[in-house]
Amino acid sequence: MSDNTPDAPVPGPAGYPGSAPAGQGAYPPPPAQGAYPQQGAYPPASQGAYPPPAQGGQPPAYGAPAYGAPYGAAPAYGYGAQPKTNALSIVSLIASIVGFIGILPIIGSIGGVITGHISLNQLKTSGENGRGMALAGTIVGYVGLAFWIIGAIVLFSFIAWAASQSSQYGY
């Protein structure tokens, strides 16, 4: 049988916290499940960060982290609270689309333009999201109104032309 049995303790690296000097032992056994460090095992918060400085007050080696160094706050990454979207900008976009596709032709476009302008005015001071939707609702509303006005002009000019043609030929 050899000395390298699986039950033999493995010595820890020299200088590792909690390990015995090189060649004299193994890592300490892990604490029992549910066990907590004893009171006073960690330094009080007023004395600085854990781990405590080495004996003699020597600074950490070059490249090692300087525990307790005043680096300031960590940058704020992640998902914070986002500002809400203005409700009138959503209403403006929906009303303009409804007016453009012909469900409520002129009323939807006019409603989209009005609510879009009100929403843009609110967004200047409120800090909410939705400026793009308000602009899109206003633009689509104006385009819808322009199409309906051009369509009405073409329709009335066609009716006037047809009336003049029927009177010219005596129909």
From TrEMBL:
- Which stretches does the entry tag as region Disordered? 1-57
Top-level taxon in the UniProt lineage:
Bacteria
Report domain DUF4190 positions.
88-150
Q: Which intervals carry biased composition (Low complexity)?
A: 16-26, 33-57
Which keywords has UniProt assigned to this entry?
A: Membrane, Transmembrane, Transmembrane helix
Q: Where are the transmembrane segments?
A: 87-114, 135-163
The residue range of the signal peptide is none
The record's annotation in InterPro entries points to:
DUF4190
Coiled coil location: none
Q: What is this protein called?
A: DUF4190 domain-containing protein
| Organism, as annotated | Microbacterium salsuginis
Give the organism's phylogenetic lineage. Bacteria, Bacillati, Actinomycetota, Actinomycetes, Micrococcales
